[in-house]
Write a structure and sequence with these properties.
486 residues, alpha/beta, eleven-stranded mixed sheet, 15 helices, 24 strands, 24% strand
């Protein structure tokens, strides 16, 4: 594709310096991955500026640059106001605007994005629509699974995936939309047919200045230029108030407040929950969900609301919800063959930890053992809060490493201890996470429930910039084999 055609897709002030008919064969924003014929984006960042790596990119085969300031390099350059925003528009144009060729669904919110996305995909496929998924755990093109690194990938990866989905015959795609992606303009110029807001609570304050900035960033998603139809959790008061002030029609889901799609007669057990789901004056259907916890009732309602907007009928919605037996790392019951249960969950924020522990408490016959830590180089303010929550809700806590990254693990654990001490809950500190899991397995008794919180679907532990293999499903199986001799 010609450089001038790609540059023409970028809004705002744009100037091409050099040969505008240069043929572009690929797009790249990492100078180490440049291929011959590439258009290289000089993205400024907090720690490094890709403008500094432009010579390396050109040496690697880049034939043109997208820049915010003209560089003394003899290749065509597209001068723009915001390179991050330009990437999204250019990537979409380069791949033929694939999002316009499918029903595009976006899910944002602090919690529930992953589970809601899996439920939506299941429902749409039950309705006979081949569906793609882009999210935290993985991306999927029909049944093909592609590993994921970010909740919402960078624009080049996103548009590549969307293009592949179109080629594979996908009619729909459901995508998790993170606040980071919105702040970094990763989805600039992309129009969603349906956008949903799960809920809002504290998270990511290492990146956003405060909760207001975090919330306002998420609300950008619901501007008319990004989303056509809105579905939201009306029981979340802050979300409900903000959506109401948009002055746009929206489908409400909930349990407590007046809703368009709602659940009652809710019964929860250790392996799932059942409820009666009603779409006001349209249909009523009984659902036997195989995912436990009241928060999964909300996720199911949100998925149903989205699929109602997509024109799916009640039986396909019910079957699609009931077909999902587990979502990787989300209140996932491991098959251990032990007289106690072991549950894996991604909970890594105060609200998500509280939700999982309350959900498990409802069905625990013995003690609830909470094993968790907090990530390094992330919001430190939540560490004592999570310690207090675990201390109040669990019978016994095991404090251990999560992804310490570049922080001293014991410093992180001491901050968690500040919150747990005054609760009176018994606890131990075992920094090595594998040994902490061993301790939990060796000390659990009949009827107990061990909650391994924080890692969920992740298969690594990040320590001093290195990602070490660490899949808790594998580790639990290995440890049980060592302990039992089987």
């Amino acid at each position: 594709m010609k450089l001038k055609a790609l540059a023409g897709s970028i809004p705002g002030k744009v100037r091409i310096i050099g040969d505008e008919d240069t043929e572009i064969l690929s797009l790249c924003s990492d100078s180490r991955q440049v291929k011959p014929g590439a258009l290289f984006f000089c993205t400024p960042g907090l720690r490094m500026d890709a403008h500094d790596f432009a010579p390396q990119a050109v040496q690697g085969g880049a034939v043109a640059l997208v820049v915010e300031r003209q560089l003394p390099i003899d290749v065509p350059q597209v001068l723009v106001e915001d390179v991050r925003m330009a990437i999204s528009y250019v990537a979409s144009e380069f791949f033929g605007n694939p999002s316009r060729k499918m029903l595009l669904i976006g899910i944002t919110g602090t919690k529930g994005k992953t589970t809601s996305s899996f439920l939506i995909k299941s429902i749409l496929e039950e309705a006979g629509k081949k569906t793609g998924l882009i999210g935290t755990v993985c991306s999927m093109i029909g049944e093909e699974v592609i590993p994921a690194n970010l909740t919402t990938p960078d624009p080049i990866v996103t548009q590549t995936l969307l293009h592949r989905m179109v080629q594979a015959g996908c009619e729909c795609v459901v995508m998790e939309v993170s606040a980071h992606a919105l702040a970094m303009h990763r989805l600039a110029g992309v129009k969603f047919d349906i956008g949903a807001f799960t809920n809002f609570s504290q998270d990511h304050l290492d990146y956003f200045k405060n909760m207001d900035e975090y919330f306002d960033t998420k609300m950008r998603f619901f501007e008319p230029d990004m989303v056509e139809n809105i579905v939201y959790n009306v029981d979340d008061e802050r979300v409900a108030e903000a959506i109401k002030h948009l002055g746009r029609e929206a489908l409400r889901i909930g349990i407590r407040a007046s809703s368009d799609v709602y659940a009652n007669d809710i019964e929860i057990n250790e392996r799932g929950c059942s409820f009666l789901m009603t779409w006001h004056k349209q249909f009523r259907v009984s659902v036997a969900l195989k995912l436990a916890g009241i928060f999964n009732v909300y996720n199911a309602l949100l998925a149903a609301g989205v699929c109602i907007c997509a024109g799916v009928g009640p039986e396909a919605i019910r079957r699609g919800l009931e077909d999902v037996r587990a979502v990787p790392g989300r209140i996932e019951l491991l098959e251990t063959g032990t007289p106690y249960r072991v549950i894996l969950d991604y909970a890594h924020s105060p609200d998500s930890l509280e939700n999982i522990l309350k959900a498990v408490r409802q069905t625990a016959k013995g003690r609830m053992i909470a094993l968790f830590g907090c990530g390094g180089n992330r919001d430190a303010a939540k560490r004592p809060v999570m310690g207090e929550i675990a201390g109040e809700l669990a019978d016994f806590c095991i404090l251990t490493s999560d992804n310490p990254r570049n922080e001293n693990p014991m410093d992180i654990l001491s901050q968690i201890e500040e919150g747990i001490r005054h609760t009176g809950c018994e606890y131990v500190v075992i920094e090595n996470r594998r040994e902490a899991i061993r301790y939990a397995l060796e000390h659990a008794r009949f009827g107990d429930v061990i909650v391994l919180a924080g890692k969920g679907h992740e298969t690594y532990q990040e320590i001093n910039g290195v990602k070490h293999p660490f899949d808790e499903k594998i580790i639990v199986a290995e440890l049980l084999s060592e302990i039992t001799g089987r």
